[in-house]
Amino acid sequence: GDSVTQMEGPVTLSEEAFLTINCTYTATGYPSLFWYVQYPGEGLQLLLKATKADDKGSNKGFEATYRKETTSFHLEKGSVQVSDSAVYFCALSAGGSYIPTFGRGTSLIVHP
Amino acid sequence: EAGVTQFPSHSVIEKGQTVTLRCDPISGHDNLYWYRRVMGKEIKFLLHFVKESKQDESGMPNNRFLAERTGGTYSTLKVQPAELEDSGVYFCASSREGINSPLHFGNGTRLTVT
């Protein structure tokens, strides 16, 4: 079945450091790919998405490129802030039902 | 627009008791999903409603879980009787039509079964 694999956390960085959170997927057909973010005490919210190969999703300084050849959708940000501390979930939707499948989440902690 | 709301935010019950979780989706969103996250693990799909109909309940763990969506509006998820392994955070999400419509999540209900 469909699945998403994310790097283990927590990821701990200093402010202004470069961020990469790896995400790879297994899916039938051509899935849409998403990154969701969960800030402390809140629900998940969509951060960015890409719906076809080579698309780049971007939002709030975060970027991820849909790489079909490596089945990856890594999340990057050039300079993180303390306010980026959150849990990040990679997800895909594919197949007949298009019900999103989520990874286990990666906790990001950014220190001043 | 008002977001997805879930109630209660926390619930602590004893093994064998019953708990009912409620979700109010965003008005006009026909799709409603229930997910569960057990500590540190992936967010697992439980079931999907389209309006008042159960479209897919393949993720429901067993018959101790019962979900309803009255008149296609709010939804409830009842666990009866609760077991220790039911502990986790239960998320509700809603979305409009369309395969690429993003999910809008509630803040979740943290259920602890002791």
Count of separate DSSP helical elements of chain B:
0
Shape of chain A: globular
Strand content of chain A: over 45%
Shape of chain B: globular
Largest interface: A-B, 23 and 25 residues
Tell me, rounded to a whole number, the average pLDDT of chain A: 93
Continuous helix count of chain A: 0
Number of beta strands of chain B: 11
pLDDT < 50 stretches of chain B = none
Radius of gyration of chain B: 13 Å
Task: Give the topology string of chain B: H per helix, E per strand.
Answer: EEEEEEEEEEE
Q: Work out the strand percent of chain B.
A: over 45%
Question: Percentage of helical residues of chain B?
Answer: under 10%
Question: Structural class given helices, strands, pairing of chain A?
Answer: mainly beta
The total of beta strands of chain A comes to 12
Instruction: Name the average pLDDT of chain B.
Output: 93
Give a quick set of tags describing it:
heterodimer, A: 112 residues, mainly beta, 6-stranded mixed sheet, 4-stranded antiparallel sheet, B: 114 residues, 7-stranded mixed sheet, globular
Itemize the secondary structure elements and their pairings.
The complex is a heterodimer of chains A (112) and B (114).
Chain A (H helix, E strand, L loop, with lengths): L2 E4 L4 E4 L4 E3 L1 E4 L5 E7 L5 E7 L5 E4 L2 E4 L9 E3 L8 E8 L7 E2 L3 E6 L1
Parallel strand pairs in A: 2-12
Antiparallel strand pairs in A: 1-4, 3-9, 5-6, 5-10, 7-8, 8-9, 10-11, 10-12
Chain B lengths: L4 E3 L2 E4 L5 E6 L6 E7 L5 E8 L2 E4 L8 E5 L5 E5 L8 E8 L8 E2 L3 E5 L1
Parallel strand pairs in B: 2-11
Antiparallel strand pairs in B: 1-3, 3-8, 4-5, 4-9, 5-6, 7-8, 9-10, 9-11
